[in-house]
Write a structure and sequence with these properties.
single chain; about 475 residues; alpha/beta; 5-stranded parallel β-sheet; 16 helices; 19 strands
Length: about 475
């Protein structure tokens, strides 16, 4: 019997096979680090008198706690400032490469690494952050780990893991012009639920997936965790190779040829069997948006807010009732009638150059609606910001009435100055819409950059077709 992509990468990194229910021991090629989940790991090494096993396979950046304006001034939040300075001191002490705030390669941990060519097919990549699944877009086995596991990888460059189950999600057919990568993953999560991928590594397959750019593939894999999956992967192909070629950490010359030859073997065998298979008809997709308080509570933008009374399952009905109350909505109201206060375009899900181009193309020649309080456009990395400014996208955003910011996690989560106030409603290109995610009492609707841009123009949740 053949093997899946995930199984091949797993086998290539197996240090020791477990037995009798014991986990396997895997070699880890790359660990990404940031200020939130690393302090305890560094302290653990310090107390044990240890040094990193392979310090050249660790790399850090500052993202979650970073301000996106006035970055040259002292951080006004004492907790955030302490976390950032602690990371800087730890990296200096242990010799870990760091891209701090203000560095040309600083950015969200899942955005700066691919741009540098650090993320490559067939690698095992970990980080103390759940959205590490982003890197699976390259055919890497990438997943988030806990703080104690971060310390273990630093000390040994290995990790004990039980094998995952495998799931194939086939997105068949050609994606309509008004649908995006974000709509694909929101539709998938709406179908299988936030727990549908629990215990699985998902491999995204099919024509619609193959036609995506690398930025778009990263969007899909990024939100695998929102379906409960351990990781998401897409088999590498010519699109992957073209993206990587010439990047700072990509192989060169003869090593490039050898790497590509290996990367081409990283595909699921025709006779491989997945533990679960899900089929999605890409031709029927369109813009999606969430109405509730988890990423699975999403619907086509043309739909209405659901009526809990019509939901048969008691648990789902109760969740819908709570979500509708928290979000300040009414059952049956058209999603397009929902007025928004703030628009956020950014995050490790949709803060890449393709996303900014998409938003700018829609915003150009328009101005934000008077009812919109603010529009924040936050590139996912400093390199993305520089590229956007080279293309003049920053001018488009500023002319539109948006705020053009420095790179960071920003309003994806309430860990920095970019927060919503209670009952403030946003449409956000980020990945989570839990209660209080963007600030205490915040109300978040997840959508694509295209929908976010159109909403900023009209003031209510809209698609570009509504303009």
């Amino acid at each position: 019997m053949g093997t899946t992509l995930a199984e091949k990468v797993w086998a290539d990194h197996l240090v020791r096979k477990g037995g009798d229910g014991a986990p396997d021991l895997l070699y880890i090629d790359l660990m990404l680090m940031h200020e939130v989940t690393s302090p305890q790991a560094f302290e653990g090494l310090r107390l044990a008198g240890r040094k990193p096993r392979h310090v050249d396979q660790l790399i850090a950046t500052e993202d979650h706690n970073t301000p996106t304006v006035d970055i040259d001034r002292p951080n006004p939040d004492k907790t955030s400032a302490l976390q950032l300075t602690t990371l800087e001191k730890n990296c200096k002490e242990f010799g870990v490469r760091l891209h701090p705030l203000g560095d040309a390669d600083q950015g969200i941990v899942h955005a700066f690494a691919p741009i540098l060519g650090l993320t490559q097919p067939g690698m095992t990549i970990v980080c103390g952050d759940s959205h590490t699944s982003t890197h699976g877009a390259f055919g890497a086995l990438a997943f988030g780990i806990g703080t104690s596991e971060v310390e273990h990888v630093m000390a040994t460059q290995t990790l004990s893991l039980k094998p995952f189950k495998t799931m194939a999600i086939n997105v068949n057919g050609k994606l309509p012009a008004d649908a995006t990568a974000k709509d694909i993953i929101l539709a998938i999560i709406a179908k299988i639920g936030t727990g549908g991928g629990q215990g699985y590594v998902i491999e995204y397959r099919g024509e619609a997936i193959r036609n995506l750019t690398m930025d778009e593939r990263m969007t899909v894999c990024n939100m695998s965790i929102e379906a409960g999956a351990r990781a998401g992967m897409i088999a590498p192909d010519e699109t992957t190779f073209e993206y990587l070629k010439g990047r700072p950490h990509a192989p060169e010359g003869e090593l490039w040829d050898k790497a590509v030859a290996y990367w081409k073997t990283l595909k699921t065998d025709d006779d491989a069997v997945f533990d679960k298979v899900v089929d999605i008809d890409a031709t029927k997709l369109g813009p999606y948006v969430t109405w509730g308080t988890n990423p699975g509570q999403g619907l086509p933008i043309t739909a209405d807010v659901p009526d809990p009374a019509k939901i048969a399952d008691a648990t789902e009905r109760s969740a819908a009732e709570r979500a509708i109350k928290y979000m300040g909505l009414k059952p049956g109201m058209p999603i397009k009638d929902i007025a928004v206060d703030t628009v956020f375009i950014g995050s490790c899900t949709n803060g890449r150059i393709d996303d900014l181009r998409q938003a700018a193309a829609i915003m150009k020649g328009h101005h934000k609606a008077d009812s919109i309080h603010r529009v924040l456009v936050v590139p996912a990395s400093s390199r993305v910001r520089l590229e956007a400014e080279k293309e003049g996208l920053d001018k488009v955003f500023k002319d539109f009435g948006a705020e053009w910011r420095n790179a960071g996690c920003s309003m994806c989560l309430g860990m920095n100055p970019d927060k919503l106030v209670p009952n403030e409603r946003s449409i956000s290109t980020s990945n989570r819409n839990f209660e209080g995610r963007q600030g205490k009492g915040s109300r978040t609707h997840l959508a694509s950059p295209a929908v976010a841009a159109a909403t900023a123009i009209r003031g209510t949740i809209s698609s570009p077709a509504d303009l």
